[in-house]
Structures are given as C-alpha cells and as structure tokens.
Amino acid sequence: MRVLIFGGNGGIGHSLCKQLLNHSPEIELHATYRANKRNDLSDDIIWHNVDITSEDKISELAAQFSSIDWIINAIGLLHTPSNGPEKNLQSCQSEFFLENIKVNALPTLLIAKHFSACLKASSHPRFVTISAKVGSIEDNGLGGWYSYRSSKAALNMLIKNISIEWSRRMPKACILSVHPGTTDTPLSKPFQANVPDGKLFTPDKVASDILHIIEKADPEITGSFLSYDGQTLPW
Ligand SMILES: NC(=O)c1ccc[n+]([C@@H]2O[C@H](COP(=O)([O-])OP(=O)(O)OC[C@H]3O[C@@H](n4cnc5c(N)ncnc54)[C@H](OP(=O)(O)O)[C@@H]3O)[C@@H](O)[C@H]2O)c1
C-alpha cells in the first residue's frame, strides 16, 4: 500500500506517519515537509520538500507517482508569529485572511486536481483532509476566528464538490473532511487554557482515530464531514 501524508512533520501528521509504520510495516510511506523534516523516522519515510501553496510544485510531486492508495492532508494554519485568530472585525487583516485560504483550503483543491489520476489507479482510493469543527457554518454559535473559520468552511465546500465530481469519475473513491478534536500540537498551544478536562487529545490518539475512520471508509460515505469519533458533523 502506498500512502502520502501532506505535512508529515506536523503534530498530527507525524503521529499519522508513526502509526501507519507501526501497524503496516510493509507500507510505502511518503510525506511532505516545508522547512524541516523530522529525523526520527527518516529511514522509513520517503520525504518530499514541497511548497503546498504552489500549483507547479504539487504538479511536479504528482508526476513522481503512478498510483497512490491513500492521501491525507494534515497541513493547517491557525496563527503565525505576527497574527492569530481574530476576536472581532476590527482585527481582521486581508493578508492574514488570504494566508489562511492559501494554506487551509487551496492545497486540497490542488492536490485533488493533480493527484486524481494517481488515486484513480488504486483499487481503494481515499483522500482525507483534516478540517475543523469551527469551519461548520451551522455549528457556529460563538463567532470570531474569521479567517480560520472561513478557510475551513471553504475547505469543506471543496471536499463536498470534489466528492460529487469523483463519484462520477472515480466511483471507488472516498473523500472525507475530518475534525480531529482539540489536539495538543503547536497549532492549538496558545488556545488550550479553556479546554475541558479530557478534551485535549494527544496527537497519537487523534492519528489512531483518523486511521480508524479511513480504514472503515467506503464510497457510500464520500463527501462527509466527520468528527474524530466517526459522528457526522453539520456543514
Ligand atoms: N490541533 C488542534 O487542536 C486542531 C483542531 C482542529 C483542527 N486541526 C487541524 O489539524 C491539522 C493539523 O494541525 P496540527 O494540530 O497537527 O498542527 P501543527 O502541529 O502546527 O502542524 C501543522 C502542519 O501544517 C504545516 N504548515 C503550516 N503552515 C504552512 C505553510 N504555510 N506551508 C506549508 N505547510 C504549512 C506545518 O508545517 P511546518 O512544520 O513547516 O510549519 C505542519 O506540518 C490542521 O489542518 C489543523 O487546522 C487541529
């Protein structure tokens, strides 16, 4: 089985790599990184240095594969050294909004576009992107976090749209949007203070949940927005 993880150096992405290697030693595991790859699994992972916001780079990466069984996109942005999620309209800045769209939504579109042929060559193609419950429009009762929420809502629309196109062209495929729950990674670090007891998950627990979802997934549920526990979330 051949698997490609986008963001294999991130908190959840790296745990996905570890668990895939533990459970399926025969796997051919590829992972992407931006600046620094993790060294601990270096011998077991085929690393690719990719700017996931560049269509040319994603197209070049796709050209290296004839087939892929599973793709998981674990890349995401919530804050940068200079910006964080907005509390109100006045703190919104166009550059940060566009950066969120560029990192949280656009790569899934580009990956789907350029990896369609590789996935179609698999007998059980799966494409999972890690989204976030705060991207649910229906579930939004708190407001704020304009850029992140909007980028994840856009991501969810992409997943739904791709699922419709692929159900015609690639009926064996299953594409899902998955909410991991609040996970102890650099992305959530500044926002962990008010997380209820027992609701801050380890990346290993979350990776295990996500892999369980993918293992059980079939084309009948393609285009779903699922929580880490398998529950369907409202769009
Ligand atoms: N942690 C949570 O509580 C939580 C909750 C809901 C949803 N999520 C989602 O889960 C996914 C994984 O996040 P995580 O918690 O594992 O966070 P993380 O540890 O911060 O990992 C984020 C990953 O995204 C990559 N990335 C960020 N900005 C990038 C950019 N401009 N270009 C290329 N790569 C970039 C990072 O690469 P570098 O290492 O090079 O920066 C890293 O691989 C994200 O989509 C996030 O939105 C997380």
From TrEMBL:
One GO location term (cellular component): cytoplasm
Gene3D superfamilies cross-referenced by the UniProt entry: NAD(P)-binding Rossmann-like Domain
Domain of life: Bacteria
GO molecular function: oxidoreductase activity
One Pfam short name: adh_short
InterPro entries xrefs: Fungal_SecMetab_SDRs (IPR051468), NAD(P)-bd_dom_sf (IPR036291), SDR_fam (IPR002347)
SUPFAM superfamilies: NAD(P)-binding Rossmann-fold domains (SSF51735)
Xref: PANTHER family: NAD(P)-BINDING ROSSMANN-FOLD SUPERFAMILY PROTEIN, SHORT-CHAIN DEHYDROGENASE/REDUCTASE
Name the UniProt record assigns to this protein: SDR family oxidoreductase
Taxonomic classification: Bacteria, Pseudomonadati, Pseudomonadota, Gammaproteobacteria, Vibrionales
